[in-house]
Design brief:
Strand content: 5-15%
Number of domains: 2
Helix content: 40-55%
Distance between the termini: 16 Å
CATH topology of the largest domain: Spore Coat Polysaccharide Biosynthesis Protein SpsA, Chain A
Structural class: alpha/beta
Order of helices and strands: EHEHEHEHEHEHHEHHHE
Low-confidence stretches: none
Shape: elongated
CATH class of the largest domain: Alpha Beta
Largest sheet: 8 strands, mixed
């Protein structure tokens, strides 16, 4: 059995079309039992939950879940994992950019723990493509993503891996980090990337920045290590400078330090300290959130579950 998990936000027409196409693929091509889990991430558009409710009412294979507030795509996806029953879980976006007819390509390699769709020609803006490449580099450095693998939210995950991901409780999850922590058996399959069928993308610059901060702070100690390395470098430079000035004082009887250089040094080191305190403070805030055991998501209501 296959579980198709689809986080939904402000979509209505595209979701109904997507469900029809998925049903056609599993009925005529895959020929296997399946279920579709639609998770409404508290969409402001009231038509979204209305559409999901109608789909669940008319189709027994559709499960609908509504969250109490917008927890984000990552949390909504994990919510779908928890309600899934399939041996394999397939995650997709709700905007028809991921083609249901490519699902058999992922299933063909289900012997791997995770199979990720590699978009041959991304239908994104130049800005989003550039930021994706930058983030891809950080993914490789921070969470051990192989450089030849391109991350996307269209993927097939073995149930055992998904259950392992659910055991890691965090208020700000990042699914790729959870995947690479649980398993290194990741395989990429090339597929096409269609245009968005309805509205605009929900990932604004600030939302992308929020996801990136979750990667940097919640899933790595990268910033702390950079600050530590920077502190060591500054300390060595300060020590070298002190030795230099003392030597000039003793050998040449000069004191080449004036008020300007003192003020510049104070401001420079003060700025570094404040920046370091800010980074450490952000880590502490998120550590406190984790120790409070805040749930990743909270469900308001369900249908067909």
């Amino acid at each position: 059995m296959y579980s198709i998990v689809i986080p939904v936000y402000n979509s209505s027409k595209s979701v109904a079309t997507l469900v029809t196409k998925i049903e056609d693929v599993f009925t005529n091509q895959v020929r296997a039992d399946f279920e579709i889990i639609l998770v409404d991430d508290c969409s402001p558009n009231p038509n979204t939950w209305l559409t999901l409710s109608q789909l669940a009412f008319h189709h027994q294979f559709v499960k609908a879940v509504q969250l109490t507030r917008n927890f984000g795509q990552q949390a909504a996806t994990l919510c779908g994992f928890e309600y899934s029953q399939g041996d394999y879980i397939i995650t997709m976006d709700d905007d028809l950019q991921h083609r249901p007819q490519d699902i058999p390509k992922l299933i063909l390699h289900r012997n791997h723990d995770v199979v990720i769709a590699q978009m041959a020609n991304k239908r994104h803006s130049a800005f989003k493509r550039i930021t994706s490449k930058i983030k891809s580099w950080f993914d490789s450095v921070l969470i051990g993503k192989p450089r030849h693998i391109q991350l996307s939210s269209f993927r097939l995950i073995n149930r055992n891996i998904a259950l392992g991901m659910l055991k890691i409780r965090t208020p700000k999850p990042f699914i790729p980090a959870l995947m690479f922590y649980i398993s290194k058996d990741i395989f990429g399959v090339e597929v096409e990337h269609d245009k968005r069928s309805e509205g605009k993308g929900n990932y604004t610059f600030w939302k992308m920045l929020s996801v990136f901060s979750n990667l940097l702070i919640n899933n790595s100690s990268f910033l702390l290590r950079v600050l530590g390395l920077f502190g060591i470098v500054i300390s060595l430079m300060s020590l070298a400078g002190a030795v230099y000035f003392i030597a000039r004082k003793l050998l040449l009887d000069e004191t080449p330090v004036g008020w300007t250089s003192v003020i510049v040094a104070v401001l420079f080191f003060g700025g570094i300290l404040l920046f370091a305190v800010g980074i450490i403070g952000e880590y502490l805030i998120r550590i406190i959130s984790g120790t409070e055991q805040k749930p990743t998501y909270i469900v308001r209501t369900t249908m067909n579950i």
